[in-house]
């Protein structure tokens, strides 16, 4: 099943949280001179026009990045994230939004490597075209978990693996846990950032508990919901489960979410930064 296309949802509140975490992790990894690898399991098209038919049909970016373009950030993580978005939109008009691989392309250094997999027949060529001239880059039309087996571990032995399934099918929750375990066995040194939607609270709590039960150490949960849980009414929030997080990440995200909370919510938002499993 390949119906999901992120172009309908680019720049929404879930993207803001996901990419805020991604930027913070990549900047931390860049503090060391040694090259690292960025691996994106469900990469999408890479870059999105917010003037496209798909983006305008839902208008989700209006309640996400659209609320932040004129904001003057106080927290360092939010400032770094917004700097990238404004770099893509230099005239101040919100026209483009970067997906996770595009953010990595903007931030990574010459000797850092990028790996990405995407199965959708329409999105893959759009993604591939953005990386044709980049060194140390491998973009494949491949199942995400086959990509783990084919590409991990990278030569650098350090990096970020971002796992961002569409969750179209109920089986994707089980596939995620199994795929994560396989990737971790191959590349235990990596930082893993796993995005999840809050649609049915019981379902997401079950998959998070399943990841905790794997026995993998050092798990940090970062979640933001601009709306109260309300099953049957779509996505009310989202989060990132980060394995081997930078030691600075919990503090950075606490500061960022305190600042973001009133900006993205029409009422009272719920958020948490919680260490689920210790080091």
TrEMBL record:
Gene3D superfamilies per the UniProt record, alphabetical: Vaccinia Virus protein VP39 (3.40.50.150)
Reactions listed under catalytic activity: adenosine(2030) in 23S rRNA + S-adenosyl-L-methionine = N(6)-methyladenosine(2030) in 23S rRNA + S-adenosyl-L-homocysteine + H(+)
GO BP: rRNA base methylation
Positions bound to S-adenosyl-L-methionine: 19, 42, 100, 118, 143-144, 164
Site location (Interaction with substrate rRNA): 4
Active-site residues from the entry: 164
Enzyme class: transferase
Key words, A-Z: Methyltransferase, RNA-binding, rRNA processing, S-adenosyl-L-methionine, Transferase
Any GO molecular function: 23S rRNA (adenine(2030)-N(6))-methyltransferase activity
Pfam family, one: RsmJ
SUPFAM superfamilies xref list: S-adenosyl-L-methionine-dependent methyltransferases
Superkingdom to which the source organism belongs: Bacteria
GO cellular component terms attached to this protein's record: cytosol
EC numbers, comma separated: 2.1.1.266
Protein family according to the UniProt entry: Belongs to the RlmJ family.
Subunit note: Monomer.
Known function: Specifically methylates the adenine in position 2030 of 23S rRNA.
Record's protein name: Ribosomal RNA large subunit methyltransferase J
Source organism (scientific name): Rheinheimera riviphila
Lineage, broadest ranks: Bacteria, Pseudomonadati, Pseudomonadota, Gammaproteobacteria, Chromatiales
